[in-house]
Amino acid sequence: MNMKRYLYSLVIATVTFATSAFAQNVDQGKKFFYYERYKSAKETLEKVLAANPNDVNATYWLGQTLYEMKDTAAARALYQKALSSNGNAPLLLAGMGGIELIEGKKDEARQRFETAISLSKGKDVAVFNAVGRANTEAKAGDPDYAIEKLNQATQVKGFNSPETYMLMGDAYRKKVDGGNAVSSYQKALTLDPNYAAAKTAIGKIYLTQRNADIFVPAFEDAIRLDPNYAPAYFELYYYYFNRDINKAIGYYDKYMTVTDVTPANDYERASIAYASRNYDEAINKAQQNISQLGDKADPRYYKLLAYSYDDKGDSINAKKYLDDYFAKQSADDFVPKDYAFRANLLSKFPGQESEALASFDKAIAMDTTVAGRSELMADAAALAKKTGNRFMEAEILGQLYKQKKDPSNVDLYNWGFAKYQAQQYQSADSIFSQYIAKYPNEIFGYLWKARSLQAQDTTMEKGLAVQAYEELAEKSRSIDSVKFKGQAITSYFYLVSYYNDIKKDKDTAIKYLDKVLEVDPTNPDAARIKGILAKPPKKASSSGKAK
User: Which whole-number Å values give the CA distances from 397 to 282, 337, 382, 385, 419, in the listed order?
Assistant: First the structure.
């Protein structure tokens, strides 16, 4: 081999090795991204770009990493700079489209996506995935559009991307379509049986349904599939946080062995002190971090202080720090439980009841899960009842009843009774009519329908409640004549009053008195009143005076 040929071979080998090394580093960066180790992903991808500033894949994934680290401005700057020298790179166009979606520029973003797909001739699965990811993660994103493009990705020759189905599942989840979401995640697992992210995502679907029998094993399975998948450890830590703190600590310690060290870890350690009921330790840790970090401190430290002081019985300090939390936390980072806690805390201060209920409304509006909304509505209704706001209680219980897939008789009764207590008698009548239709062999519908009609006709002049009390008397005797004896007697006496006082029909009034005596032969009032009504009218004397 001559020297020239040898040098040529060496150059080719060196270039091939370098390209392979860069690709491996990009893949490593993507792997860190998959594990949600964004700090490591950022460091790795920055090294790739330092060596090769024109690496499109590294640029795209660094931008996505910056977005996950909540540095959208840096992601935009990165994509803009890269596009200025490579304006036709489909992956970068899709990345920029995602930034524009975050900024609410839907039309511009859609144009970017379509251009990216067109330039890649609809044959690049990575581009379809980028479009799907952007529309799934951004609030302004269109999940249907994401699903459409991700389905197109599955038609590309040689398709074998579990990530595509993972993103499709996320898009269905955004549509609150749990069935199709789980199906998509399962398809991802079919392509890669060790794809722990998909198993974790399945667990999260059932987590929203509060089905621990399914989601806990799903998270545990994810760890078995990939012991390095940190998010599954965190989900288990979070689940056991308020249930078994020792078990939670065990999962958190394992989580820390496979994740990046970040300031958020310090927050979780402080939270663990709170969950362990070491409130003073939690308070000290939170205050130390606030003192050290100043404005850069995680706003959740203020929430942790509020919880700690509340559990110590110090509502004043709890409210102070919760107000700080709401002032400092970004709007996108509030969770329904924040507003629920605020509502319960405010309810401890006289005069704050309306604001407390308004806070519950925000929590309910924010929660997208049926189970979560139901729990919040029940709490809000209890607060409304406690504060004497029966109108609000009735409204909330109505929402609760309508949103439940299988509402119970108790749900319907509570709604109707709250309407009655709020003096919305026509609505109460309508609800208890529904109760009678659904539960014809229960007394409560007949009883409160009669009372609701009676409340609308307190003078009896309209006779609105007459038929209802006849039905109540009949059902009291047929359903359980012993248990509901009192309801039957009350109904008959109501009818006695109506026929004697309003209709001036003593014979019918006496008939109902006889029915009272059928139920209660020793009833002194029935016997006495019957004796009075049965007396013939006194005859008038020749002088016109009764004798």
Answer: 37, 19, 10, 11, 9
Q: Which residue has the tokens 């009843």?
A: 401
Domain presence at residue 496: yes
Q: What's the predicted TM-score (pTM) here?
A: 0.73
Domain with 253, as residue range(s), is: 212-260
Q: Is residue 205 part of a domain?
A: no
> Which residue has 């309801």 as its token pair?
487
| C-alpha torsion sign, points 20, 21, 24, 26 | negative
Q: What is the pLDDT of residues 183-232, one digit of tens each?
A: 999 999 999 999 999 999 999 999 988 899 999 999 999 999 999 999 99
Structure tokens at 272: 């663990």
Question: What distance lies between CA 458 and its chain's CA centroid?
Answer: 44
To the nearest 10 degrees (0 to 180), the angle between helices 370-386 and 353-366 is: 170
How many domains is the chain built from?
A: 2
Region 77-100: mean pLDDT is: 96
Q: Is residue 543 part of a domain?
A: no
428 vs 188: CA distance, rounded Å: 51
Residue 135, both tokens: 């529309």
Which two tokens mark 47?
Answer: 């090294």
Domain C-terminal end among 229, 245, 260:
260
> Does 9 score more than 50 pLDDT?
no
Among 235, 260, 285, where does a domain finish? Answer: 260
Residue 386 pLDDT: 85
Distance CA 216, CA 222 (A): 10
Does the pLDDT at position 320 exceed 50?
A: yes
Which pLDDT score, from 0 to 100, does residue 541 have? 52
Only one residue has tokens 């993972």, namely 166
Q: What is the pLDDT of residues 275-297, one digit of tens each?
A: 999 999 999 999 999 999 998 89
Cα first-last separation, the chain: 150
3-state secondary structure of 103: coil
Residue at 244 is within a domain: yes
Amino acid at the residue 281: E
